[in-house]
């Protein structure tokens, strides 16, 4: 790769980066890669119903300023082939397959909502693969969720320009204003946008999330198997996966920091994107120092 190629790679944003594909294990995974070509990659694990273009460019682009960031569609989501699993364990297996296909031996994970459940499963089972873990708006196995009730309430608000506004943000004027700005940012990309696969994704994902939270985990076995440093983040008024989940996780994890953002719902990381990025950078850069330099088949 020439210096010009490296400069062009570093200049890519979520809105301009080309969508790449890599195939293996019977799945053709869609992904975008941003940021430097060296360093520990940060792999993003998306929320229920979300795809690559559901991420906030304000978060992804800022994080990619000083580290490789990879956003991808797991099996069956967006433009990735295969069938969307109805359980977290298989979603985690597919995500690990994707990481392996890229040739990566060590990554950081940022899991949001359902993606946070997947991230927990990966970190518990693949301790050598995951260096650090960021869990946002998520729940432990056996945690509290109100997915169907919150979805029903959000879709009943027919005056909302997008269901993510009532799902991710509170009713305060400040939060709603942040929500509208978030929605605008997610729609900047016009070409090569990801696809919405409807019920083929949301039905199995809903079952996976509900089952994860409905299944007891005696002794918090998954959380206690996670030995990596963890940053746990929640919004104070998250109605889908309430903030008491974040407190419960931080209490059981062996090495966790807890951040609670005020006047914010499920999309706290998007509402408070500047400070969220700052918190993530501080967490990822803290001692112990970054893991070994890792490059893969991007």
Polypeptide structure, described:
This protein has 298 residues and is α/β, with parallel strands linked by helices. It is built from twelve helices and eight strands. It has an eight-stranded mixed β-sheet, with helices on both faces. A hairpin with a 2-residue loop joins strand 1 (20-24) and strand 2 (27-34). Helix 2 packs parallel to helix 12 and helix 3 crosses helix 4 (114-125). GO terms for molecular function: hydrolase activity.
SS element count, helices? 12
Percentage of residues in helical conformation: 25-40%
Low-confidence stretches: 1-7, 289-298
- The portion of residues forming beta strands comes to 15-25%
Overall geometry: globular
Keywords: Hydrolase
Protein name: Alpha/beta hydrolase
GO molecular function, one term: hydrolase activity
Domain AB hydrolase-1: 41-272
Record the SSE blueprint.
Layout: H1 3-10, E1 20-24, E2 27-34, E3 42-45, H2 57-63, E4 69-72, H3 88-101, E5 107-112, H4 114-125, E6 130-136, H5 147-156, H6 164-168, H7 173-186, H8 199-214, H9 221-225, E7 230-235, H10 244-252, E8 256-261, H11 268-271, H12 273-285
Parallel strand pairs: 3-4, 3-5, 5-6, 6-7, 7-8
Antiparallel strand pairs: 1-2, 2-4
Helix pairs in contact: 2-12, 3-4
GO molecular function: hydrolase activity
Keywords: Hydrolase
Domain AB hydrolase-1: 41-272
């Amino acid at each position: 790769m020439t210096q010009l190629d490296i400069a062009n790679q570093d200049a890519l944003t979520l809105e301009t980066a080309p969508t790449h594909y890599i195939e293996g294990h019977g799945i053709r995974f869609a992904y975008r890669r941003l940021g430097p070509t060296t360093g520990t990659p940060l792999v993003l694990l998306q929320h229920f119903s979300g795809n690559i273009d559901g991420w906030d460019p304000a978060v992804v682009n800022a994080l990619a300023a000083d580290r490789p960031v990879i956003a991808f569609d797991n099996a069956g989501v967006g433009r990735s082939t295969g069938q969307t699993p109805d359980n977290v364990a298989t979603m985690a297996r597919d995500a690990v397959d994707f990481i392996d296909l890229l040739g990566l031996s060590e990554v950081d994970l940022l899991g949001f909502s359902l993606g946070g459940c997947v991230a927990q499963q990966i970190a518990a089972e693949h301790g050598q693969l995951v260096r650090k873990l960021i869990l946002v708006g998520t729940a432990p196995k056996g945690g509290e969720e109100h997915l169907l009730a919150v979805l029903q309430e959000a879709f009943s608000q027919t005056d909302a320009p997008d269901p993510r506004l009532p799902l991710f943000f509170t009713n305060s004027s400040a939060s709603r204003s942040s929500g509208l700005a978030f929605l605008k940012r997610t729609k900047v990309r016009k070409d090569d946008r990801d696809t919405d696969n409807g019920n083929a994704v949301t039905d199995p994902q809903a079952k996976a999330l509900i089952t994860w939270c409905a299944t007891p985990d005696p002794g918090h076995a998954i959380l206690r198997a996670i030995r990596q440093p963890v940053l746990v983040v929640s919004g104070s008024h998250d109605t889908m996966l309430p903030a008491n989940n974040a407190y419960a996780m931080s209490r059981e994890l062996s090495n966790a920091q807890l951040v609670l953002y005020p006047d914010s719902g499920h999309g706290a990381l998007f509402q408070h994107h500047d400070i969220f990025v700052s918190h993530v950078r501080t967490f990822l850069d803290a001692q112990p120092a970054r893991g070994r330099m890792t490059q893969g088949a991007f």
